[in-house]
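To fix ideas at the outset, we first show an illustrative case, written as a sequence plus integers encoding its fold:
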Amino acid sequence: MAYNYITAQEAAEMIKDGDTLGLSGFTAPGAPKLITEFIAAKAEREHAEGRPFKVNLFTGASTSDHVDGVLSRANAINMRAPYQNVPDLRKRINCHDVHYFDRHLSDMAQETRYGFYGKIDYAIIEAADITPDGEVILGCGVGNIPTFAAMADKIFIELNAKLPHSLLGMHDIYMPLDPPYRKEIAIYKPSDRIGSPVLKIDPAKVVGIVRTDSYDCVKPFTEPDAVSKQIGANVVSFLLSQYKNGGIPKEFLPLQSGVGNVANAVLYDLGESTILPTFQMYTEVIQDAVLELMKKGKCSFASTCSMTFSDKVEEELFGNIDFFHDKILMRPAEISNNPEVIRRLGVIAMNTALEADIFGGVNSTHVLGTKMMNGIGGSGDFTRNAYISIFSCPSVTKGGLISNIVPMVAHADHSEHSVDVLVTDQGIADLRHLDPVDRAYAIINNCAHPDYRPLLLDYMKLGKGGQTPHALQAAFAFHVAFNETGDMRNVDFSKFA
């Protein structure tokens, strides 16, 4: 069929207050670049004229300033899920201008199909191409768009001229059946293909195609600082020791890595190892470091949901697409993050924490227990089901004013039942097989900053027994001390004795 080409402004004018939008992409790659900017402009105009205008926004994960940024500044978002990382949106969430609910990334698509979140009015899809019969070549991120497109009443396509047609074949689009008819997801190694190289949609739902011409606008990561490098070196040291001791099979296992400087440092260091064999990745995001590892022959394949490359590296990918084409496969989030597949493959999970407590609990989302940072993302999907689950964080932040190792996390995202290994710049605590008290001393002695070790040991003296000897009256004394004095080191445990 012949599609209707429209402007981004014309698309935005069709969207009404209260509509629910489902967007393609996962992080900035694959997310819309233009229509959302005009939705924000419409919201500002409506607000200036005294009329309400907000939309509900469902995505694959975080997006970019083209989406979450402009819409937040226009106060145009009512409800948002499942993950975000844009400062303007974070401010809206923490003052409740935006109703944000945090979900495991593997859950979002299926729960949308279950009807938990109501109907999808519009899906907005970034594409390299669309055929007359509704076969879409997606961009550099998939996210939850197969479900959003299937559920949406209407669809907009952003046809991005920057995306080469040679992306065809780098996607594996598969949507599982829902209970009670679900079958196994037949992925037995990261490179297994189970779906379609294109997203198939109903052409009759496409109300307009908008032309765009933009890279994903991912900023390159800064050079890792000394702390990040040390954390990365400690993670690699642990993996190498496990490999040499037989704790990891000689073939090695697929890796999952979160986003950021520490993740990049770990991957670069792994690439320098002469001990580890060539490895594969089964993860939700791949970053610049992965392309370098592929060029070196260290990483042979990566299954992911998104290629979150900086613009320069994205250009390199597109310019050498023949080399990388059969080494990368992009899947929907409910497949890239699927617990069944993660457990079957024996994925080694590496994620970051905001803080961890001495008994092994991890806070991934809330600064000082109350202020949302980014969301849980896919860390829960991988942590609970990994062969080994590793969390890392600096031992302190704000020049030592905050200890990231605390008596009790002020917000619990991952319990001690799911956290196998904790790594900081100070060292490594392998928590497997340890009881709570042994875990506490392992974390204090190996992971806490020297300034805070005596204080944490003082806390342990306050416990009155039980398997996990918390002193509940003092459990958040670190956080209280920071809120009252600006320095956790000012805690005074003597008043709890």
Notes: The CA atoms of residues 120 and 151 lie 6 Å apart. The two ends are 77 Å apart (CA to CA).
